[in-house]
């Protein structure tokens, strides 16, 4: 091929490989457009821009941080739990639910632990369970009444409850009227199989009256003076303690002292005053224990693992045996061995040991978790209110239930002396169950009185919810779909 033809072919190939410019868009109204505007017009009339990878742009979906999982890890779980706990009705539901669960589980364990004891005294196996169930029904009614009562009515009942309780506690010491049970002269006979222990109601009376007294003094700004903080709260508490100690019931006296200290702590007692009252109470307790052989023997039974050859520390040792034989999940409901006469008071003071034997460590930890939830919810109610009466009363009830549970469980575990106090809401005993359930209803009423809880409860009423939904829905003009 000649050189000219080869040159022409190469020139044509080079021209063909050069990209042609975009055709200009039709000019509106016949007016020619510049090159840049023509290019924009071409893109607007149908030319496609080069596609970019999806998510590669800044701020696009691809720039988001990939999720590591649905749960979000422990951090997210903790945040969800914290938000759930901060809801207005959390304390209300925790107090109601934990107290009812403790009571129901207590009824089951009272029946299981008292069957052999009832048959031993020639009674039906459901004898103690029937009495406890009746007390639980009456206590449930009292709890419902207390939960529905306004705070002002609770304050109005403080003085009448205190006066009636003091009268009954004085009546116990009258010969021929008061009864002695297990060496304690603290009972009144009501007829039939029913008895009443007025000192159990003394705890509730001291809380209501003391909370009302301290609230009125705080409103008048008198609690900054130590005389107004102590008088007449401490003298009245000592009067109740004296009436209780006349009957020899030191366990109830310890609980009453704990309630007094709790009220003083909530009232803001200075450290030196608090230490002084605590030192005086410790000195009195030491004298009472030192002068009583029975109390000295109970103190000597702390931490024992086997009874003495003469039969001392029998109850403490067999309580440890019951807990040790339960294992992780227990021997089964009703399969306890210690309740067959080996462990004294299996359905009252040492029902926690039978629970450990039949339900194991899982059962005892469940009971402890329920008491911890109830105590923490009570602290929340006392800490979030602005009403001084509610703060003192809720703190007093929380101190009462928590201190009594710690003393009872500590005695069963051998960490504390055997004080003879029942496990709140759990052990057998109607005299202890009735005021405790009323006190729980008191805390439920306080939890309902919180402004945020009131609003949340009001929103749950059908009428309020329907009106709220109607306000949120906007009316559309006629004919609009």
Structural summary, described in words:
By secondary structure, the chain is mainly alpha-helical. Helix content is 64%, strand content 3%. The chain has 19 helices and three strands. The protein is globular, with a radius of gyration of 37 Å.
SSE class: mainly alpha
Supply Rg.
37 Å
Query: How much of the polypeptide forms β-strand, as a percent range?
Result: under 5%
Shape: globular
Note the run of SSEs as H and E: HHHHHHHEEEHHHHHHHHHHHH
Average pLDDT taken over every residue: 83
Q: Order of strands side by side in the largest beta sheet? A: 1-2-3
The biggest sheet amounts to: 3 strands, antiparallel
What is the tally of helical segments?
A: 19
Termini separation comes to 80 Å
Low-confidence stretches: 27-31, 33-50, 52-69, 468-476
Total beta-strand segments:
3
Helix content: 55-70%
List the keywords.
3 strands, three-stranded antiparallel β-sheet, globular, 19 helices, 481 residues, mainly alpha
List the helices and strands and how they pair.
Layout (H helix, E strand, L loop, with lengths): L2 H15 L17 H10 L28 H13 L4 H31 L6 H22 L2 H6 L1 H15 L5 E4 L2 E8 L2 E3 L1 H22 L6 H5 L2 H14 L3 H17 L4 H20 L2 H8 L13 H13 L24 H34 L3 H25 L17 H19 L2 H9 L2 H11 L9
Antiparallel strand pairs: 1-2, 2-3
Can you summarize this structure?
With 481 residues, this protein is mainly alpha-helical. The chain has 19 helices and three strands.
